[in-house]
Amino acid sequence: MYQAIMTIVEKGHAEKVIDAAVKAGSHGGTIINSRGSGVHETAKLFGITVEPEKELVLVLAEEKAAPEIVETISSDLKLGEPGNGIVFVQDVARVRGLYQPTE
């Protein structure tokens, strides 16, 4: 069983997420550019609404490795502090095409 670890951070912080995931045993991830739409995500500048850009980092990991990856991402990016981002995990039913390096 695999799990999808998804982390949403401010633009420019995705590489730190990837570094933390690799440090914890991941083989990499995918960075997706996005933007926030929550109540606290928009601001006005000269009467123009500005929506902060975000980055979504998707890491697929074996179920046994996921807790350590999540903990390292959370710790290294200080996700316990408000405004630093969020991380969540979802089960993945089927996976094909993942690169598994031989050890």
TrEMBL record:
Domain of life: Bacteria
Alphabetical list of Pfam families matching this protein: P-II (PF00543)
A biological-process GO annotation: regulation of nitrogen utilization
InterPro entries documented for this protein: N-reg_PII, N-reg_PII-like_a/b, N-reg_PII/ATP_PRibTrfase_C
GO molecular function: enzyme regulator activity
Protein name per the record: P-II family nitrogen regulator
The organism's taxonomic lineage, starting at the top: Bacteria, Bacillati, Actinomycetota, Actinomycetes, Actinomycetales
